[in-house]
Specification:
The chain has about 325 residues and is α/β, with parallel strands linked by helices. It contains twelve helices and twelve strands.
Length: about 325
Amino acid sequence: MTETRAAVRLFLPVALLAALLSVFLPPGKASAASLQEVTGFGSNPGALKMFRYLPDGLPAGRPVVVALHGCTQNAAGYGTGSGWTELADRWGFSVVLPQQQPANNASSCFDWFQSGDIERGRGEAASVAQMVDRQLADVSGDASRVYVTGLSAGGGMTAVLMAAYPEKFAGGGVVAGLPYGCAQAAGSPYVCMYVGATQTARQWGDRVRAARPGYTGPWPTLSVFQGSADTTVKPVNMIDLMKQWTDVHGADQTADAADTVAGYPHQVFRDGGGRAVVETYGITGMGHGQPVDPGSGTGQCGTAGAYILDVNLCAAYRLGHAWGLG
């Protein structure tokens, strides 16, 4: 198909070429937009790279989603595989895609466990916060509708950003990730990942409150996606995330609503005012990865690959729907 299109490009007028490509490309994927690297976005104390995706003709005042890749992944692959760039075209928002560097972490994991990278004003967390500021300025984005999400180490860094910079994010989506301060609570990132940390809901919440001393809210809402068969990040971490963020929001740890989504258990936790502040999706039988549901249906998105798992549920769609993006 690539060679055929190259030959066609030599002989057909541009307008006719565009018409032909619209036939061959799947719906919603005919955008000419592409990933762009952004440099000079701040002091960048965490030495990360910044990429972004802007749908064609995106107007001012639109939401921003920060999407953090997992270990061994990169910004471009995660943006496409997870479905976020696809949804950006569909619903009209921009995506910031931070990228880890091998000099920071040999496996390209965000350093969610390093004290120097998870504290406000320092390291990788500060670099991502600077990316958000740059993006809002460049695209005149809606500062009240900025969201953050990520897979695995990117999920761990999502919790970091929610805790250290709560004023910047309206909501967060942690996929196979860890609570804020888990490595410190467990004494080791590996104990946190494979066993979990022994903390009460209040102790978990105190770790978040200590990350932003004196902050009185509002705090970001949280959605968590976790595979029940994940042996890299044990499912207990979803429970601990729920405990941590229900406590931060002043809610209890008993679900106020429970149903199934695509056949998977889904729970919702509400604060005293009845607002949904935490929700969890337990993906039965799924290992370590990002849930996707490839296809052109309304609720479908993503492309299956390494650590991008087709389980008939697209986490990006569910997050975007919860956040009112589409």
